[in-house]
Amino acid sequence: MKLYVYVLEAKNLPSNGPVYLDLELGGSKFASRAVTKGSSLDPVWNEEFVFRVRGSEGEVLTVWVCEEKGDVVGQVRVGVGRVTEVENGCLGPTWFEIDGKSGEVENCGKLLLALSLHGREDERQAEETTDASLDTSSPSGSPVKSPRRKKLMKAVASSLNKLLHKNADFSRSDESSDLSSETEVHSEESSTYSSFEEAMESMHSNGGEQPMPEDLGCGILLDQSYMVSPKDLNAILFSSDSEFRNNLAELQGLSDVHETPWVSKPGDASTLTRVVTYIKPPSKLVKAVKATEEQMYLKAGIREFSVLVNVKTPDVPYGNAFRVELLYKIMAGPELPSAEESSRLFVSWDINFCQRTMMRSMIESGARQGLQENFDQLGNLLSQTVKVVDSADSLEKDQVVQSEKREHQSNWDLAVKYFGNFTVVATTFVILYVGVHIMLCKPSKPQGLEINGLDLPDSFGELMTGGIIVLLLEHIHGRVSRFIAARLQKGGDHGVEAKGDGWVVTVVLVEAVNLPSVDTTGDPDPYVVLTCNGKTRTSSVQLQNSNPQWHEILEFDATREPPSVLGVEVFYFDGPFGHAVSLGHTEINFLKNKPSELTDKWIPLEGKLATPSLSKLHLRVFLEVRNSTETMKEFFENVEKGVGKKLKPQSPHKNATFQKLFELPAEEILIKDYSCYLRRKIPLQGRLFLSARVVGFYSNLFGHKTIFFFLWEDVEDVEVHSPSIASVGSPTLIITLRKGRGVDAAHGAKSQDEEGRLIFYFQAFASFDAACRTITALWKMRNLAIEDNALVINESQCGQLIPETAVSPLLFEDANMSKIYEGDFQMKCLMELFNGGNMEHEVMRKSGCLNYRSTKWEEVKPGVYKRQLSYKFSHHISVFGGEVNCTQRKTIRDDGRGWIVNQVMGLHDIPFGDDFHVHLRYEIEELGSEDGACRCDVFLGIEWLKSGKFQSRIERNINEKLTHQVMDILELIKKEFSVNQ
Q1: Are 624 and 397 in contact (CB under 8 A)?
Q2: pTM for this predicted structure
Q3: Is 542 within 8 Å of 510 (Cβ atoms)?
Q4: Is 300 exposed, middle or buried (0-12, 13-18, 19+ CB in 10 A)?
Q5: Structural contact between residues 275 and 257, judged by C-beta atoms closer than 8 angstroms
Q6: Neighbours of 561 (CB within 10 A)
Q7: What Cα–Cα distance (Å) separates residue 418 from each residue in 411, 432, 462, 544, 768?
Q8: Which residue in 153, 331, 128, 155 sits closest to 226, CA to CA?
Q9: CA distance 156 to 315
Q10: Which pLDDT tens digit goes with each residue over 523-576?
């Protein structure tokens, strides 16, 4: 005896990814195809499975609902006895509850199944069976219900009959009648609209505030702005009476085009769907095929629309193995000087495979090529229908900058906004009320312990009222002081214009929303730190504001190398040396974002605090090159110096091919490419591409493509291994990336070390020495530009680190200095810290002072010497890094028994670093013992060049951090001296 199981559909599944079914009965197992569940569509299988049963009523059919990655969603268990109990041995379509993995019902959704012991039944029996199943409820399955019961039963019976008669020959007229019947029921069950505009208004009122979906993963097919409103562009593309669609079908050679009207699903007016069918013209390899598009609106707002299109082409080779998805996004376009509306059309695509196939890469390649040709035609036709927005039509950088400068609110508007709250209003009312009361009251005679001129509270109520008034006045005083300080506070790099020729990054920091609070005492004091090409720019600090508005312009000085990424991090201000709490961070990749996308962009912040708060930052970023010809010429000259030979510029065609291959912007210029092997488990022949910012690899082996790239900034080390048996006698170039970088290129790495760094192996270059020199030169040049871009110091330059005019007149005075350390040392050991030798450099490096440089001591006058120092703080000392320029003066004590070393420190690239100098003084006194012992006292002071609100906070922070650093330095010099003795 055979059991026929018909798997129809599922609903309310907790998973949104592809799902498939595993069916098991006795010793037989079957698996269904994987079906992708859309954002609002339930998966439909309509598949038949046949099991052989022995007639035992104790046998149980188990259906496992699984995600494509292998996780089990739940299970359905149906006893075979339920089918045999039915009079005609046919259990019609029934909804079964999906139990969780533990066997308990966990609201995992429902599965629609039909079971039969007969392979063929006439339509009447199937309909009767369906009617009976719909009227009968069971403990484990719930019957299908509908207000239009008879028509729905007829449609379900027809579907079941088609499954039962799968081996019979049906005429096209029968199929057409079934389709028309199902369409009739569908149209009666769904809501239809008299016009396209009515459908859009209905969807907007029911779900227009939904967020825009994420782009699909396989790439971008079209990204263009047009001088037409988003609403009109949406009507041009998707309205049923659009002339544009007819013209496009004629251009692409489509025939038999049929479109159903836009309808909404029963009980769900937040989505609109329709089906479009057409026949595609034959090509050189494929005959004319029929295609079906299931179009569904995911969002229909006032100025934003998104449509998901599922394309099925079952007649093409392997057509049942995949489905193509297209996502149309229509958004507001750039602002235009003429104040006209503009819109942006953004189309991305993806491909979902329902079955495993060895032809996957070939299918993807063919789909990509065909879609790109179709959308090139669509873009050309659309540009003839509506005007395309040129770069000259959008707002230029200067216009944006000027508009942001005008966005500053007046002090009066800010005061109204800041003080317009219940606390201030209530306090003002209480003060006026009490003032009027005092004016109306007459002086009373002294009583109790009162004396003339001293009026004490006469009751506990008066005492409490007085205390409340004092607290309210203190609160108002604090708010007024904070507001005045915020208005007077100047800080950050706002308005500092970029210098020089080359690549210039300009960032307009507009505002932020939903910034998290560090504690429960109030809103944060946020500021933003931008990092690009090794340089940082810092915004001003906004006081007590979780939705701050800066409207500041921050520019980076011109560099000869084009920038790759812009690091953005929002901090809570608590001093320049503190472990500042990060409120959120993000990164803007110039290679993955078009310039037009960055001119006005809201960027979500990441981080432990920012992610739960949904924090966002509003930026406008502009990248331009000044004197591009000279800049590129100078860049190539520097590369040629590192390589040691002349480099030939690549042809425009080869550059364009390189940019298209890796989807890079037009300014990315190819420098050199080499044929080589990528060494993984199996060596892969391909080409290695080198440009100013990226290293890319491409291979196409029998249609299987391997493509990836990573940034030069991501490279931590480049090594060369000698030929060996493992490398088949070829030297190997090994590139190691920094921890956590190059994740997109992980599939090309041969291994990953214990710290999580990706390692790439390249070998079998045609000219290994030339390739190695070029790669090493580019890496070192880029690494030098990032790490030492701010300051490259040599012996001849160190004397100019701090101008004489910058030395404070209080440099060697005792004012405002406090002792932070005292201890005993050997005089010879301690003076090693000031002689400029290897021990001094090693100690400073270990204490967190990077790139430490020092000049020789110069005698200013008898007994007085001076030298210059420079270094960078490591991120363990300051999250900002920051550069330090120092002047040291060494003087013999008046009694001749030791030295006094005075040091003034200028801090740069940290918030408010230009507002103060830090002073250190080492008083070294000989103790007169035979072992040459001495006592060292260290004093610390801060000289303020500009007053500010955060003086006390900065002083506390500097005292704490530099005290620990001085102690570490003195302990390290003891250890190093003892080791070298």
Answers
A1: yes
A2: 0.46
A3: no
A4: buried
A5: no
A6: 20
A7: 10, 21, 31, 10, 66
A8: 331
A9: 26
A10: 787 889 898 887 888 888 787 788 888 888 888 877 877 888 999 999 887 655
Instruction: Return d(Cα 29, Cα 200) in angstroms, integer.
Output: 47
Q: Higher confidence at residue 571 or residue 37? A: 571
Concatenate the DSSP letters of all residues of 103-143 into one string: SSEEEEEEEEEEEES-S---HHHHHHHHHHHHH---SSEE-
Angle between helices 149-164 and 172-189 (to 10 degrees): 150
Task: Give the DSSP letter of residue 139.
Answer: S
The string of pLDDT tens digits covering residues 849-891 is: 888 888 989 888 888 899 999 888 876 777 666 788 899 999 9
pLDDT in tens, 203-252: 777 765 677 888 887 888 888 888 888 989 999 999 888 888 888 888 88
Residue 875 · residue 882 · CB < 8 Å: no
The length of the chain, given as a count of residues: 981
User: DSSP states of 381-416 as a string?
Assistant: HHHHHSPBPPTTTSPPHHHHHHHHHTTPPPHHHHHH
Detail the DSSP E strand segments found in 564-661.
565-572, 581-589, 601-604, 616-626
Neighbours of 736 (CB within 10 A): 19
Q: Which of 217, 200, 198, 196 is nearest to 208 (CA)?
A: 200
Residue 797 has pLDDT above 80, yes or no: no
Given a contact cutoff of 8 angstroms between Cβ atoms, the answer to whether 61 and 383 are in contact is no
Tokens of residue 545, six digits = 């504001």
Q: Dmax over Cα atoms in the chain, in whole Å?
A: 121
pLDDT greater than 80 at residue 589: yes
Choose from 379-393, 421-435, 746-760 the range with maximum mean pLDDT. Answer: 746-760
Site of tokens 């507002």 = 915
| CA distances for 713 relative to 52, 574, 624, 733, 781, angstroms | 63, 30, 20, 18, 11
The half-sphere exposure of 483 on its side-chain side, counting CA atoms within 13 A, is 17
Q: Which amino acid is at 965?
A: Q
Q: Take residue 889 and report the two structure tokens written for it.
A: 């003066």
CA–CA dist 791, 871 (Å, integer):
9
What amino acid is encoded at 829 in this protein? C
Residue 346 to residue 340: CA distance in whole angstroms: 20
What single DSSP character describes residue 239?
-
Q: What is the DSSP letter of 211?
A: P
